[in-house]
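User: I'm preparing a small set of examples for a lab meeting where we compare how different chains pack in three dimensions. I only have the primary sequence for this one, and I'd like the structure in token form so I can line it up with the others. Please keep the answer compact; I'll paste it straight into my notes.
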Amino acid sequence: MDAATEAIAQACGFNSASGLGDIDTRFGCTGCGFDETIPPTDPCLTRAPDEVDTTWTLADLENTVTNADTAGGGWVQLTVRHLCAGSCDALSVDPAVFAQFVARLSTRAASNNTTVKTVGDVIGGAVKPVVPVTTTSTAAPGPGVNGVVIRGSRQREPMASRSAGPSTVSVRTPRPSAR
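Assistant: Understood. Below is the structure token output for the 179-residue chain.
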């Protein structure tokens, strides 16, 4: 994400936006640190690990949380796009693995190691009104082309966050796949 993309998120009325691949995991970003600060230095570019996909295991999910705890705490956002068992797209997580992870987070919450919050609770600020459309919608860029498409309405996916000691982990709530 760059300054222009951050400006678009702000202009659309969002209180925050996250990057991806900015937290140290076995998948990359070695030496980047294990968490985002609370409050984040830049709410419109919060640091987060790569998206959770079919290559992530329960141990990977747990390690992302415990590494933040061990490093002294902070915020870790986990982005999960789809829950799907079987032959699914690459950005899927098996529902059984996700359920085990949520159960482990619940156990941590019961022992006062974990607090579940929404991203809005972590970021704060008033919910801003929907920004009216002043231009027509633009067709999405073609395959292999990055771009931002501004549409007439905003759709916010619910987020759940987890706090371990002084650490907070957010998990984007996925919708079950229609497969």
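A couple of notes for your slides: The helical segments are 3-11, 58-70, 95-110, 119-123. The chain has four helices and seven strands.

User: Perfect, thanks.
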